[in-house]
């Protein structure tokens, strides 16, 4: 009788430790995802901050392209309204964010394309610095998205594997979303003959 | 605890194998040569004398400031974007110290049968302030490309390194230093683990039951090291200037590039 109780207590302790360890590793994994997310937000914000300056500079040389400017500005203001809560990062939220930012990307792409038609603009020192900054920001976005995806994948694997998934469902750890590749983001390899 | 580490090792090995297999067909950045060095000419563009003097200069700079500038010359970007390629090298090799992230990767793909020449200078997180993208762009346009066009690869790379060093000198880095909070947590974990083990030992002696806790694997991000089997052709032996090895620096995509 007494032995049975002790075994029971021991089992409870072991399960408790297992729960605690599982819970803690999920917490720190989730924290890592959140840290990666804040980096992602930083680099996107960096791009947002560049836009007014960039548009103003291009406008000085290419007044007739007002539609392109409007597209960029509209996409930017739309994207500022899409907020993602770092505690959630659900697939739906993330795909919404991704879509809004993707619109900025394509609007910016068009803006940079029209600059090709204005040699004076291309020779402008201020513009070439802005261009370098924009390129650098796009590279940072690619890198941080990739890092975020890695963290999210690690976290998702952690919470979905049995038997740890039990702990995850008890404490309400939910799956995080990934960044899907944007259209045109992945350049198809050019075949040359 | 041990089950966790074992699992982690198995996972890492599996991942490394998968990465290796996929690297045969798909793109992957080269692995750092053993012994590690700062000047890595996989394309055989520089003479061994040039490599030697460049290596010496960069190792000396690493020794005094802990800032690491790695030069990597590859014959082919294997379909990757130069920016992505350089950033990945920085991240995989761990250029710069892990605390300061003060690494720079100068990636050069010479003009050859595989297409036009490309260059990208990737800047680690810790140097993004001292070496902004626009300045890097200027170095590439003013220092490197004119010399690349004249086939002066050494001049272009050495000139860029000097310009980068000048910029990086604006930033001071601590050589080594640890924050306290991590250590405290580490010791606390050990103490608690010991206490629990004692408790368990006592219980099992009394009751005969209870296996030790199934500790979960740690959650440190495990970057699988790819096996050291890179096509090391064209590798002129680097100098023996005593490069201490890469320090685990991290890269966020900063820097700039160009083509010619």
Our estimate of the beta-strand percent of chain B is: 5-15%
Q: Percent helix among the residues of chain B? A: 40-55%
How many separate structural domains of chain B? 1
Radius of gyration of chain A: 24 Å
Q: Distance between the terminal alpha carbons of chain A, to the nearest Å? A: 83 Å
Side by side, the strands of the main sheet of chain B go 1-2-3-4-5
* N-to-C order of helices and strands of chain A: HHHHHH
User: How many separate helices of chain A?
Assistant: 6
Inertia-based shape of chain A: rod-shaped
> What's the story with the biggest beta sheet of chain B?
5 strands, mixed
Oligomeric grouping of the chains? heterodimer
Beta-strand content estimate of chain A: under 5%
Number of strands of chain B: 5
The CATH architecture of chain B can be named as Roll
What does this structure look like?
The complex is a heterodimer of chains A (about 190) and B (about 260). Residues about 185-193 of chain A have low confidence and may be disordered. Helices cover about 75% and strands about 0% of the residues of chain A. Chain A is rod-shaped, with a radius of gyration of 24 Å. By secondary structure, chain A is mainly α. The N and C termini of chain A lie far apart (about 85 Å). The longest helix of chain A has about 60 residues, at about 1-60. Chain A has one domain (about 1-170): LemA-like domain (de novo design (two linked rop proteins), Up-down Bundle). Chain B is α/β, with parallel strands linked by helices and about 260 residues long. Chain B has a single domain (about 1-175, about 220-260), classed as Roll (Diaminopimelate Epimerase, Chain A, domain 1), CATH 3.10.310.50. Chain B is about 45% helix and about 10% strand. Chain B is built from 6 helices and 5 strands. In chain B, α2 (about 50-65) packs parallel to α5. The interface of A and B includes residues 6, 29, 128, 136 and 154 of A.
């Amino acid at each position: 009788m007494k032995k049975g109780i002790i075994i029971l207590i021991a089992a409870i302790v072991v399960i408790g430790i297992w729960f605690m360890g599982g819970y803690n590793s999920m917490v720190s994994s989730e924290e890592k995802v959140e840290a990666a997310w804040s980096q992602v937000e930083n680099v996107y914000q960096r791009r947002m901050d560049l836009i007014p300056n960039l548009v103003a500079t291009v406008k000085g040389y290419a007044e007739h392209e007002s539609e392109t400017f409007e597209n960029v500005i509209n996409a930017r203001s739309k994207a500022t309204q899409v907020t993602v809560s770092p505690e959630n990062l659900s697939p739906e939220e993330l795909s919404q964010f991704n879509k809004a930012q993707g619109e900025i990307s394509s609007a910016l792409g068009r803006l940079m394309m029209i600059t090709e038609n204005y040699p004076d603009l291309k020779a402008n020192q201020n513009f070439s610095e802005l261009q370098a900054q924009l390129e650098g920001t796009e590279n940072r976005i690619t890198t941080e998205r990739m890092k975020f995806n890695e963290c999210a994948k690690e976290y998702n694997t952690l919470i979905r594997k049995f038997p740890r998934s039990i702990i995850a469902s008890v404490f309400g750890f939910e799956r995080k979303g990934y960044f899907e590749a944007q259209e045109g983001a992945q350049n198809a390899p050019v075949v040359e003959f | 605890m041990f089950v966790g580490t074992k699992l982690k090792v198995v996972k890492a090995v599996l991942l490394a194998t998968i990465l290796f297999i996929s690297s045969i067909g798909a793109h992957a950045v080269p692995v750092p040569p053993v012994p590690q060095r700062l000047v890595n000419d996989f394309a055989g563009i520089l003479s061994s004398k040039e490599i030697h003097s460049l290596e010496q200069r960069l190792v000396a700079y690493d020794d005094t400031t802990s800032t690491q500038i790695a030069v990597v010359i590859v014959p082919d970007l294997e379909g990757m974007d130069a920016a992505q390629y350089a950033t990945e090298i920085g991240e995989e090799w761990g250029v710069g110290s892990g605390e300061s992230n003060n690494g720079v990767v100068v990636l050069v793909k010479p003009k050859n049968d595989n297409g036009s020449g490309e260059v990208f200078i990737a800047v680690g997180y810790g140097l993004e302030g001292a070496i902004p993208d626009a300045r890097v762009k200027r170095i590439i346009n003013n220092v490197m490309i004119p010399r690349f066009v004249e086939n002066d690869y050494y001049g272009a790379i050495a000139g860029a390194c000097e310009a980068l060093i000048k910029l990086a000198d604006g930033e001071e880095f601590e050589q080594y230093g640890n924050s306290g909070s991590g250590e405290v947590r580490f010791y606390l974990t050990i103490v608690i683990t010991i206490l629990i083990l004692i408790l368990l030992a006592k219980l099992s002696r009394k009751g005969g039951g209870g296996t030790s806790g199934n500790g979960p694997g740690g959650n440190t991000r495990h970057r699988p090291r790819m096996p050291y089997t890179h096509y090391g052709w064209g590798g002129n032996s680097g100098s023996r200037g005593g490069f201490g090895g890469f320090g685990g620096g991290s890269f966020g995509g900063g820097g700039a590039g160009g083509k010619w």
